[in-house]
Amino acid sequence: MSSQTSTKAALITGSTSGIGLAIAEAFAANGYGVVLNGLGDTDDIKAICTRLTTTYKVDVIYHPANMMKPDEIADMMALAQNLFGRLDVLVNNAGVQFVAPVEEFPPEKWDQIIAINLSSAFHTIRLAIPGMADRKWGRIINIASAHGLVASPFKSAYVAAKHGIVGLTKTIALEHARDGVTCNAICPGYVLTGLVQAQIPDQAKSRGISEEDVIQNVLLAAQPTKQFVTVDQVASFALYLASDAAAQINGAILTIDGGWTAQ
Q1: Looking at residue 41, what is its pLDDT?
Q2: Is the separation of the CB atoms in 96 and 116 below 8 Å?
Q3: Please, what sign has the CA dihedral across residues 168, 22, 263, 220?
Q4: Which of 2-16, 26-40, 242-256 has the lowest mean pLDDT?
Q5: Whether 246 contacts 186, CB under 8 Å
Q6: SUPFAM superfamilies this protein is in (predicted)?
Q7: Beta-carbon contacts of residue 206 (< 8 Å; ≥ 6 apart)
Q8: Which positions ≥6 away from 17 have C-beta within 8 Å?
Q9: Residue 202: predicted pLDDT
Q10: Cα–Cα distances in angstroms (integers) from residue 34 to residues 26, 38, 101, 253, in the given order
């Protein structure tokens, strides 16, 4: 793999599947070199890198950094800098979920969710900012959630982390507003990922209702359009925020949730 120092470069955490992979593909398709990160089968990840490299004629590399470990995050950020000579776009997408009433919420699950969904973004941003500010151009895009704006029961850690991402986004935007660096958050509602799709038959069986009822009355209960957000819609939004056309969008908390948070 050759280093292409003139290529624009994007790093997307949690990008081996779902929203993150769609964002990575969108940037690769638009000429960005890409650093992937996330969980998955080694052969599957190699196949993703090969497909993106071959299809879009850009460098694509994978780093297995554990988002709970600042040292591994620092190593991943250094790899991006070394390979491309720069990092133009940082997308913080890595996230995990656990659902339980607060009094039954395992402390280790709280710590894991805060680390992966919130603290990891701090660690990537603090390392990305100096180079972006020096070059007077950079885009930081944090994938928050409708739960960054409103709450749901039994998701205390996730909701707290996503509200934290919203606050972090605004702060970074203000700190570097004169450096050509923008920081924004995308707040999706329910997105039809492979993970969500796989839950539908099980939900239908356990609740004794049809799969369509699960979609309409369980998963999309809060979404007025009664339609899932697609991964490609989120990816297109991220790509726009990385464009020069979006240079004055900064510190914005942008919903793509079918009207959920308008209620």
Answers
A1: 97
A2: yes
A3: negative
A4: 2-16
A5: no
A6: NAD(P)-binding Rossmann-fold domains
A7: none
A8: 38, 40, 193, 194, 195
A9: 87
A10: 10, 13, 39, 25
Cβ atoms 191, 256 nearer than 8 A: no
Pairing label, strands 253-256, 138-143: unpaired
Query: Measured between alpha carbons, how far is 262 from 230 in angstroms, rounded to an integer?
Result: 19
Residue 96 CA to residue 115 CA, distance in Å, equals 10
How far apart are alpha carbons 24 and 101 in whole angstroms? 35
H/E stretch holding 89: strand 89-92
Bridge partner list, 141: 91, 184
Catalytic residues: 158
The domain locations on the chain are 9-190+230-256, 192-228
pLDDT digit string (tens) for 66-79?
999 999 999 999 99
CA distance 137 to 150: 32
Phi, psi of 45 (to 5 degrees): -70, -40
Residue type, 166: V
Dist CA 54 CA 185 (whole Å): 31
Whether the Cβ atoms of residue 164 and residue 207 lie closer than 8 Å to each other: no
